[in-house]
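Hi Q.,

Before the meeting this afternoon, I wanted you to have the adenosine monophosphate prediction in hand. No need to reply - just skim if you have a minute. The sequence and ligand are here:
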Amino acid sequence: MSSFEEFGLRKEILSAITEMGFEEPTPIQAETIPYLLIPNADMIGLAQTGTGKTAGFGLPILQQIDFGQKTIQALVLCPTRELCMQITKDMQRFSKYMPEFKIVAVYGGASIQPQIQALKSGVHMVVATPGRAIDLLNRKLLKVQHVKWLVLDEADEMLSMGFKDDLDTLLAETPPAKQTMLFSATMPNEIREIAGTYMHDPVLISVGKKNSGAENVQHEFYVVHAKDRYAALKRIVDLYPLIYGIVFCRTRAETQEVADKLMGEGYNADVLHGDLSQAQRDFVMNRFRLKHLQLLVATDVAARGLDVNDLTHVINYNLPDELEVYIHRSGRTGRAGKTGTSISIIHTREPQKIPQLEKLLSKKFIRREVPGGMEICKNQLFSLIDKVETVEVNESQIGPFLEGIYSKLSRFERDELIKKFVSVEFNRFLSFYENAPDLNVNVHDHKFPERGEGKPRRDRASFSRIFINLGTKNNMTPSSLIGLINDRTGHKSIQIGKIEMMKKFSFIEVDSRFEREVMGSFRDCNIDGVDVAVELKTSEGPKERSWEKRPVDFKSPKRKSNRNDKKRW
Ligand code: AMP
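Predicted structure with the ligand bound:
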């Protein structure tokens, strides 16, 4: 594994990135940095946001800038103001120990005067949106004749936002003897055209497969009648009480309508689209970044500038017209080593789109059933129990009220009291979903994969049921249990069936072929002070004694596809 030192980067850069926590180069950096340190070698990088591409082009540029010359030597063009600011901020952090380095971000939707001032004072690097760059070029304030490095970041986004003519103008203005680096998540024909016209024998550097979405994203879809789309959305959202995601809609009107309905029904949601002023957009994005909002209902264009790394879900309220847009949407989750789910709600006339997407992404899409009331109530209930388990009690604040509370509740037994407390939340969902209809479309009417797992369920007999003395009390969840098995066995291809979790122990079904391997992997294993014990079980486990001991029948979360997975950094 190469390290940043091996690239021969300046010690000022090394100190700064070490402070930022960069220990080793990401896959794209490992490829681009040594390559870009060679003068005049053009390059196309197929990479998405979140892969570390900013340092991939930023560090070699910083290494080679001539601080003696106060001319614009590096020009970075990117689609949005937010990305512009993000790249500039990253460059400032990389150059923390190089105070002589001067950079400015120029973008629309903000006063041009400070940007003009900064340009006049002399900068080495400009990060710009194409529209504002053209404006400044026309005013003869952006002087690009000394540019040595030209970066086109998220080039496919710039093209789909209609910046082709601006890019042509800017590319033609820069000197021919420069190094051009083009980054794009996808490779549409227009990118090939740009490469053919303006780049010299570019090398193609790609991390992961061509056109592949994020590795850690699971793709799921629900099939409903168009009239049930909103009801299905609500059920999906209700199924995941801790959801933190973006709901993508096609038009501004639809975005507003869905957001209004969600907000009206008490969901922690807000809206983001182009009809809002920049200040309103900033406000909403900020609330979302700070997780004060759980759901953001957005159009593709408006969500472009939003850089959030830990979304749990992306929901396609509609599939986009252009399938490549799906790659961008779904790539917003499953970042920075985390897993995420991209959910599409599709109607009965769209069956052909799923195989097309599967082909484009080389990934299997899983068809899910729109959850019914009981499934939702169960998830909500256990999410509430998790919250109760972990909530911090503020003794001093609640203290004065406790005596009155105890005396009011003293006539109830413990079990009764627990039931009453959880019912406060449970009843809300129960009554809402009491007569909820089945929203699923009959599978036989349409050309969709079967409901459920997207492939035939494994025969139950081919699973082995293993007892493990870890449960919710040990802060275990179904996913962490699966994660533990992955870690202990060292591979992720073992299929997991049903998981039943109780406080102090769990039962987990594993592919029988790996039964011995899984059992053996827990030898001499201690987790948070518990010596882990595993046992093979053939019976159906302990009898239920009281409701709170009832095993929770979790659906096993789908794991990321295995064999060919690249280890993420
Ligand atoms: P980017 O794709 O450039 O937006 O980077 C995504 C995130 O990864 C940013 O927060 C970077 O600071 C971070 N990052 C980039 N390179 C590395 C690295 N080598 N090690 C750790 N984090 C990194």
